Amino acid sequence: MLVVTRKKDEKLVIGDDIEVQVLRIGRENVRLGIKAPADVAIYRQEIYDAIQSREKGGPTGGDSVTQVDLPDAEASPEADTHSPQRAKAQSDGRA
Questions:
Q1: What is the rounded radius of gyration, in angstroms, for the C-alpha atoms of the chain?
Q2: Which pairing describes strands 30-35 and 18-25: parallel, antiparallel, or unpaired?
Q3: What are φ and ψ of residue 46, in 5° steps?
Q4: Long-range Cβ contact pairs of 24-33 (< 8 A, separation 24 or more)
Q5: Does residue 34 contact residue 52 with C-beta atoms inside 8 Å?
Q6: Neighbouring C-beta atoms of residue 91, cutoff 10 Å
Q7: What is the DSSP secondary structure assignment for residue 48, as one 8-state letter?
Q8: Contact between 53 and 59 (Cβ < 8 Å)
Q9: What is the rounded distance in angstroms from the CA atom of residue 1 to the CA atom of residue 46?
Q10: Considering 37, 50, 55, 60, which has the largest number of Cβ atoms within 10 A of its Cβ?
């Protein structure tokens, strides 16, 4: 794992087409802005884990169907977007 220190408004560049910028630093969290191509999916870890669990048939990995409650994208301005196009629009400040 690469560990870097960034201050407010500083960026990281990943590859040729992904930028991560520190937008705000709070007492217990930071707000990051991510610019990436529309075809790159970006998820918080807990959302990614829930999606993976649902796709594998739940915590047991069996054939049973498990309901996974994902946060509503409209309920929180910090909720993940569910489509690459919306993520791209938000990263460009258009949404």
A1: 16
A2: antiparallel
A3: -65, -30
A4: 31/78, 33/91
A5: no
A6: 20
A7: H
A8: yes
A9: 19
A10: 50
Tens digits of residue pLDDT in 43-94: 999 999 999 999 988 665 444 444 555 555 444 444 454 444 555 545 555 4
> The sheet that has 30-35: what strands, in order across it?
11-14, 18-25, 30-35
Tokens of 86: 């919306």
Find where tokens 């408004």 sit: 9
Q: What type of residue is 27?
A: R
67, two tokens: 């309901």
Residue 34: name the closest of 25, 46, 21, 16 by CA.
21
Between residues 15 and 68, which one has the greater pLDDT? 15
Q: Which residues contact 18 (CB under 8 A, 6 or more apart)?
A: 34, 35, 36, 37, 40
- Extract the tokens encoding 84: 């690459």
- Residue given tokens 């929180």 in the structure block: 76
